[in-house]
Specification:
Shape: elongated
Order of helices and strands: HH
Strand content: under 5%
């Protein structure tokens, strides 16, 4: 049952992606640029998560006091 639900949730995303499909395939430069952008965003999010994790640990060590 959960598998069917997950498939249903992805159906709209798949349809949207198919509508956005370009006429020509991406060039290698476009692909490299995309990978760079995704990597930068991922690293920024990872840094933010690390900062939040340190803050949570700090608060927990203080007994929840701010």
């Amino acid at each position: 049952m959960a598998r069917v639900t997950a498939m249903d949730e992805l159906a709209a995303t798949r349809r949207h992606a198919e509508r956005q499909r370009p006429e020509a395939p991406a060039t290698q430069d476009q692909f490299v640029d995309l990978v760079k952008r995704v990597s930068l965003e991922f690293n920024a999010m990872r840094s933010e998560v690390s900062t939040l994790r340190r803050r949570v640990e700090q608060l927990e060590s203080q007994g929840g006091k701010s």
